[in-house]
Amino acid sequence: MKPAPRLYVNEPLVMDGQIALSGEASHYVMKVMRRRVGDDLRLFNGQDGEWRAQITEAGKKLATLIVGTQTRAFARVPDLWLLFAPVKKSRTEFIVEKATELGTAVLHPVITSRTTARALRDERMQMICREAAEQTERLDLPQILPPQPLQEALQNREADRPLIFCDEAGDNQEKPWGGTKGRARPMLEALREIGPGTQKGAVLIGPEGGFSPEERAMLRAQSCVYPVTLGPRILRSDTAVLAALSLWQSVCGDWQQQQ
Amino acid sequence: MKPAPRLYVNEPLVMDGQIALSGEASHYVMKVMRRRVGDDLRLFNGQDGEWRAQITEAGKKLATLIVGTQTRAFARVPDLWLLFAPVKKSRTEFIVEKATELGTAVLHPVITSRTTARALRDERMQMICREAAEQTERLDLPQILPPQPLQEALQNREADRPLIFCDEAGDNQEKPWGGTKGRARPMLEALREIGPGTQKGAVLIGPEGGFSPEERAMLRAQSCVYPVTLGPRILRSDTAVLAALSLWQSVCGDWQQQQ
Question: To the nearest whole percent, how much of chain B has pLDDT over 70?
């Protein structure tokens, strides 16, 4: 049997609470998901866990629900931050969706010297995060920080949050890491040094053109920064994001546990 | 300085060879990349390595090139196969693009009992692979096998190619791996058992609805099959592909080497 569909709502969830769905959410539930009065949904709001709810009324523009029992206690994803340079719109949307699925706690757009794209509108990012969280059985939503220049983001960073710096697409693309030989190592090796005991982490991915020599020097001069490579091929930014987050979750995050 | 753009051509590459670009490739080089007579490109054909070439003539519908020196000797990606159930068109295109970037040798669409989407046209898959290979500095192209029912693909498989079977989205989505407790383990753990010394591997990803109980039993009954999980959240098929290929390359593939 298919489990009841999940829906994010922006309201407190308590037993016997009444929820009125907005026109848009109501349309989605009644028309897209084709639910009827009496059907069950699962609701979450990013802080109260997951609750079963039943559709009690379904008007043309408004559906109402009554909240039943809690199905899962609230839990957060691991404390993993993603710092990423905005790229082409569709690829940035993809980064936001996939980072949510992969259990990222904080999304932070950073503007580097070679960043040519604009950050997505905040509302758009929020919507993508909500939909991905619905799909992926997450109970919390990622926090979205406002875009910030890379230098500022580095000045304000917590000194003890290990930052994995993916040095893809260096200045010499034919020998991408030729200029920093021996100074960037396989990401898995760096993660093993950081260790599974770490409580927090961050991954930084640059724009398609990579980081400038000044940025790379600035990053390498910081403590608790780990320059890494993701293999001998050049990955696009969105691919590098997914690869790096997957590796982090596998070694330092919650993918290690037996399910 | 930006390196010369890379272009796939379907012709032998030898020093002083002349290459006539097709109308489409010619348009791409002259109009999209805005190159002129005298400019350099880098060419590869999936078997002769990478060669520098110079534009010698640029008509409206035809550009010609002369091949110079070889810039990189031919090399293949690791012998990694991806078996994947076709999903929604845009997500399947994405799987093909990303698997190429992540260094997959063979792409094999497999039809499972819950597969609802059709496989992409072969030409379309080839085009996506070529473009991704151009971007990613790959020298070979993935081989694309014709779609095949899962059962047949398993009957014909090489017995000694370790198959990582990603058991995402099981039958009980609320406790996704509840029914197979202790029988699927974190992918990183399975890869460590397989070890970095392995010469070949395969990853199998199902459709959005997961595998049927019969398929899961059939897979588990085969030797050299490793049922694994990718963490406590439900990943979409395309996300699972990327995560699994990244982990394989990191432990068993060519991401371990210092660049």
Answer: 93
CA nearest neighbour of A55 among A43, A39, A69, A34: A39
| Residue A1 covered by a domain | no
Q: How far, CA to CA in Å, does A156 sit from each of A78, A171, A222, A232, B196?
A: 21, 27, 12, 32, 39
Distance between CA A180 and CA B257 in Å, rounded? 15
Phi, psi of A154 (to 5 degrees): -70, -35
Residues B151 and B211 in one domain: yes
Task: Using the predicted structure, report yes or no on whether residue B113 has a pLDDT greater than 90.
Answer: yes
The count of CB pairs under 8 A between chains A and B is 143
Question: What are the tokens at B21?
Answer: 């670009």
Site from B233, B238, B247 to mutate, A interface, most A CB atoms within 10 angstroms: B233
- Give the one of B71, B246, B259 whose C-beta lies nearest to A246's C-beta: B246
Task: Test B234 with A135 for CB contact under 8 angstroms.
Answer: yes
The helix-helix angle for A89-101 and B237-251 (nearest 10°) equals: 80
Mind listing the pLDDT tens digit for each residue in A111-123? 999 999 988 899 9
- CATH of residue B44's domain is 2.40.240.20
Q: Does residue B157 share a domain with residue B56?
A: no
Return d(Cα A215, Cα A85) in angstroms, integer: 13
Number of domains chain A is built from: 2
Chain A CB contacts of B239 under 8 Å are 98, 101-102, 242
Residue of B77, B234, B242 lying closest to A239 (CB–CB): B242
**Residue where a domain stops, chosen among A72, A96, A118:** A72
Q: What is the pTM of this model?
A: 0.92
ipTM exceeding the 0.90 mark: yes
Q: Which domain holds residue B64?
A: 6-72
pLDDT in tens, A83-139: 999 999 999 999 999 999 999 999 999 999 999 998 889 999 999 999 999 999 999
Residue B16 lies in a domain: yes
**Cβ contact B259–A172 (<8 Å):** no
Q: Which of A98, A176, A231 sits opposite B254 (nearest CB)?
A: A231
